[in-house]
Specification:
Branched-chain amino acid ABC transporter ATP-binding protein/permease, 3 domains, six-stranded mixed β-sheet, 23 helices, single chain, 12 strands, Rossmann fold, transmembrane helix, four-stranded antiparallel β-sheet, binds adenosine-5'-triphosphate, BCA_ABC_TP_C, ATP binding
C-alpha cells in the first residue's frame, strides 16, 4: 500500500524532474535546479504571510507565487551569462551556482545555518498532485506548438534550428527560465511538506536525483517525469514489502537504471510511447495516397505565404567577399549577383570555397572582408535567424535534419517563420490555436508533397533513406517560403533516377520565381538545370556564364573537369 507521504513524494519528485525536463527537452544539461529551488524556498518562507493570519491555503498560494518568481529570476540571472555554454560546460557552471547558493545559505545567519528554518506543514497529497497536474498541463499543451517544436529542434540540431529562423538564444533562455519557475514550485512545496527548509535538502544529491528521475522517465514525452518519479519513489516501498531493509538499494537501483536508460533507452521509459501526429488530408483521399508523385501536384503558389521580389530583381549582392581561416584564403574577392527566378549553379573542385561562400550568405560565417547584402540584410552583421527571416533558406552539405522528429515535424519547424505562435492560446484552449496549428500542418504537408514525400510524413527523419533525407531537407527549407533557396550538394548520394527527379524539382522551384543557388558536384545535373553557372577555384571566381560556355572554358576544364577527354 502506498502511504500518504509516498503519494506526495511521487508528485514532488515529478515536479522537480519537470524542471530538468524543461531544459533537457531543449538539449541543455543544467544542474542548477537545486539552487533555484533553494532560492525559491528560502525567499517564500521568509516573505510569505503567516498561515495563522491568512489561512493555510492562501499562505501556500502566496508562497508558491513568490517561489516561482524567485526561481525564474534566479534562472534568468544565471542564464544570461551562461547561455552561450554548451553540454558539460553548462552543467558545471550551473552546478557551481547551486553549490555557491548552498554554501551561502549554510553560513548566513538569517537562514538558520545547517538547522534551517522551520515551516508549517500545509501540503497534502491532493495539493501536490494538483500542482503537478498544472505543471504537466503546461508541458503537455506547449509540446506540439511552434514554441515547443522550436525547443526540440534546438535539441536536435542548434545550427539547423537557427537557419530555420529560430532565435536559439532567446528560446534557450526561455527553457532555462521555465526550469527555474518549476524548480521554484518544487522548493516551496518541499519546504511546506517536510516542515523545514535546510541547505542539505538542496545539495548535489538532490540535483542528481532530479536528473536521474527525468532521464529514466524520458525527456521527449511530457509524461516522462511522472513515470520516472513513480518508478523511483516506489522502489523503497517494494523493498519494504519484500522485507529488504538495506538503505543503499534505492540509490543503487537508480544508478543502474540510469546506466540502462542511457545505453538502451535514450528516450527514457516514456520514450517508448509512440508520438502521434495526424497527417492532414490534402485532397480528401487519405494522407497523400495517390498524389505523392514527385512534386507535380502542388504548384509553388500553394506554398506562398509572403511577398517576394519580382522576377529578375537582385536578391543577393556580393562584392569583394573574402574569408580567411588563418593562412587559408577560403574565399577571395567574390563579386556576384543572384536574381529572383534564377537558378544559379556554384561549382568548383573540393575545397574551392563553395560552402564557405554560402555559409557567409546565410549568416553562419562572418566575412573577413567585403560585403554581402542579402534581401536587405548585411550578412555577417545579422544573426543567422535574422538572415533566415529576411527570406534565405538552405539545406546543408551534410544532412542536418532533426533526426528524432518525424518528417512532418521537421517541415513544421521549417515553417517556423511563416506560422503563428500558438503557445498561450493552446494553454487557454482557444479554438483559433487549433485552426493555426492545423494551417501549419497543412502547409508542412504541402511542402512534403511538393518534394514527393508525403507518404513518409510520420517516419522519423533519422530512419529515412539518404536520398529521402536530402529531399526532406529541401521540403523543410521550402516551408519557410524563402526568396533565396540555397541547396548545398542536394544530389550527393542519390542514384541517377533520384537525381533526375531532383533536377526536375529544382527547376520547377526556380520557374515559380524563387532564386535558387545550387552547389553541386554532379556537373551533368548543373548543366541540365542551371540558367547560369559560377565556377570557384581556390576561393576565386574563374568563370561565370551559361552552363555550356562555362563547360567549354579552358580554365574550368583545367581546374575542375580535368583533361578535355
Ligand atoms: N572552419 C574552418 N576552419 C579552417 N579552414 C576551413 C574552415 N572551413 C573551411 N575551411 C577551408 O577553406 C577551404 C574551402 O572550404 P569549403 O568547405 O568552403 O570548400 P568547398 O568548395 O565547399 O569544398 P567541398 O566541395 O569539399 O565541400 C578549404 O581549404 C577548407 O579546408
Amino acid at each position: 500500500m502506498l502511504t500518504e507521504s509516498t503519494v506526495t513524494f511521487i508528485a514532488l519528485g515529478a515536479i522537480f524532474a519537470f524542471s530538468f525536463y524543461a531544459v533537457l527537452n531543449a538539449g541543455q544539461l543544467s544542474l542548477g535546479q537545486a539552487g533555484f529551488a533553494s532560492v525559491a524556498a528560502y525567499t517564500s518562507v521568509l516573505l510569505a504571510p503567516d498561515p495563522d493570519v491568512v489561512g493555510d491555503l492562501a499562505a501556500l498560494l502566496i508562497a508558491l507565487v513568490i517561489g516561482m518568481t524567485a526561481g525564474t529570476v534566479a534562472a534568468v540571472v544565471l542564464g544570461l551569462p551562461t547561455m552561450h555554454l554548451r553540454g558539460v560546460f553548462l552543467a558545471i557552471a550551473t552546478l557551481g551556482f547551486a553549490e555557491a547558493v548552498r554554501i551561502f545559505l549554510l553560513n548566513a545567519e538569517w537562514t538558520g545555518g545547517a538547522q534551517g528554518l522551520s515551516v508549517p506543514k500545509i501540503v497534502t497529497p491532493a495539493i501536490a498532485w494538483v500542482v503537478l497536474a498544472i505543471v504537466a498541463y503546461w508541458f503537455w499543451r506547449s509540446g506540439p506548438t511552434r514554441y515547443g517544436r522550436a525547443l526540440e529542434a534546438i535539441r536536435e540540431d542548434e545550427l539547423a534550428a537557427g537557419a530555420m529562423g529560430i532565435d536559439v538564444g532567446r528560446h534557450r533562455l526561455g527553457a532555462f527560465a521555465t526550469a527555474g519557475a518549476v524548480a521554484g514550485l518544487y522548493g516551496v512545496l518541499w519546504a511546506y511538506t517536510v516542515r523545514l527548509v535546510a541547505p542539505a535538502d538542496f545539495g548535489f544529491t538532490a540535483a542528481i536525483d532530479g536528473l536521474v528521475t527525468a532521464m529514466v522517465g524520458g525527456t521527449t514525452m511530457f509524461v516522462g517525469p511522472v513515470v520516472g518519479s513513480a518508478f523511483l519513489t516506489v522502489i523503497p516501498e517494494i523493498q519494504r514489502a519484500l522485507g529488504v531493509e538495506a538503505g543503499w538499494i534505492r540509490p543503487f537501483v537508480a544508478g543502474l537504471l540510469l546506466l540502462v536508460v542511457i545505453l538502451f533507452l535514450p528516450g527514457g521509459l516514456a520514450g517508448r510511447i509512440p508520438r502521434r501526429i495526424r497527417v492532414p488530408d490534402l485532397d480528401g483521399r487519405g494522407s497523400g495516397s495517390g498524389s505523392d508523385d514527385g512534386g507535380s501536384s502542388d504548384d509553388g503558389a500553394d506554398l506562398r505565404t509572403r511577398e517576394h521580389a519580382p522576377r529578375g530583381d537582385v536578391v543577393a549582392r556580393l562584392s569583394g567577399l573574402s574569408k580567411d581561416y588563418g593562412g587559408v584564403h577560403a574565399v577571395r574577392g567574390v563579386d556576384l549577383e543572384v536574381r529572383s527566378g534564377e537558378l544559379l549553379g556554384l561549382i568548383g573542385p573540393n575545397g574551392a570555397g563553395k560552402t564557405t561562400l554560402v555559409n557567409m550568405l546565410s549568416g553562419l560565417v562572418a566575412p573577413s572582408s567585403g560585403t554581402a547584402s542579402v534581401l536587405g540584410v548585411t550578412a555577417g552583421r545579422a544573426p543567422v535567424h535574422r538572415v533566415a527571416a529576411a527570406g534565405v533558406s538552405r539545406t546543408f552539405q551534410h544532412s542536418k535534419l532533426f533526426d528524432r522528429l518525424s518528417a512532418l515535424e521537421n517541415v513544421l519547424v521549417g515553417g517556423h517563420l511563416v506560422t503563428r505562435p500558438t503557445l498561450l492560446r493552446r494553454l487557454l484552449w482557444l479554438p483559433s490555436a487549433r485552426r493555426d496549428e492545423q494551417a501549419a500542418l497543412t502547409h508542412a504537408a504541402r511542402c512534403l508533397r511538393r518534394v514527393g514525400m508525403l507518404e513518409a510524413a510520420t517516419t522519423r527523419a533519422g530512419a529515412l533513406s539518404y536520398g529521402d533525407q536530402r529531399r526532406l531537407e529541401i521540403a523543410r527549407a521550402l516551408a519557410a517560403d524563402p526568396s533565396l533557396l540555397i541547396l548545398d550538394e542536394p544530389a550527393a548520394g542519390m542514384n541517377q533516377v533520384e537525381a533526375g527527379e531532383l533536377a526536375h524539382l529544382i527547376r520547377s522551384l526556380a520557374d515559380d520565381g524563387l532564386a535558387v543557388l545550387l552547389i553541386e558536384h554532379n556537373v551533368g545535373l548543373v548543366r541540365q538545370v542551371c540558367d547560369r553557372v559560377v565556377v570557384l577555384n581556390f576561393g576565386e571566381v574563374i568563370a561565370t556564364g551559361a552552363p555550356s560556355d562555362v563547360a567549354a572554358d579552358p580554365r574550368v576544364v583545367e581546374a575542375y573537369l580535368g583533361t578535355e577527354a
